[in-house]
Amino acid sequence: MAGIQLPAGTFSWVDLTVPDTKAAAKFYSELLGWTADEPNAEYGGYAMVRTNGKAVAGLTPQMSPGAPAAWTTYVNVDDADATAEKAKQAGGQVIFGPMDVMSQGRMALVQDPTGAVIGLWQAGEHRGADVYNEPGALSWNELQTRDIEAAKRFYSQVFGWDPHTNGEGAQAYTEWHLNGKSIGGMMAMPEQVPAAVPPFWLPYFVVTDAEATTQKAKELGGQVMMPPMTIPQGTFAVLADPDGATFAVIKLPS
What we know:
By secondary structure, this protein is of the alpha+beta class. The chain folds into two domains: 11-123, 2,3-Dihydroxybiphenyl 1,2-Dioxygenase, domain 1 (Roll); 138-251, 2,3-Dihydroxybiphenyl 1,2-Dioxygenase, domain 1 (Roll). It is 17% helix and 43% strand. It has an eight-stranded mixed sheet with strand order 2-3-4-1-5-8-7-6, with helices on one face. An eight-stranded mixed sheet has the order 10-11-12-9-13-16-15-14, with helices on one face. The chain starts with 10 loop residues before the first strand and ends with a strand.
């Protein structure tokens, strides 16, 4: 089996849906040092990307022409069908699946009541990423939404997450806890984000230098959505790739 066995309710994988997976692989390879496997025709052209040979994310070609490029975050679940049903009962919508991905696992995509899409992953042979919190690998997942309270109700009901909020107003930040451990975050969508942009989950990837990575992203045709900022958890920046998919990079404290 590939990937680390994680408890149900924890983030296990991210993948990027783009018009051109080869162009995306080139951008992220130059930016984050990833190497991409050859697209697998059996899985609709899906390709694993790796750091130091360890799987960290996936690339998948768009099935709907004209759809925006986007990162999708997946949560490990014991039963994709039961969790999808729970999502519907909590006010969400199932927009894809549940379906088997051959022997790799069973998946579904659900949209929360605030409009953000999140994936459900019931592990088979593929359990998730091989490594976390190392350069090139996933470190954090954060929901940016316009309805914090609705999101708290939904994710608590579906995954059993416990929201812990610090601060007030626009500065408030919520950490999702599972079994007493912080596993992800949530914040209000910044006011400067256009109303046409729906709420979304933002993946954070570890880098060794957030400032240099931000500059490199611009040179490669990406955009800086939020310049580097230092917080106790590290120095991070929010970027968009040339196709417009938004992601964050973070240099963790030494």
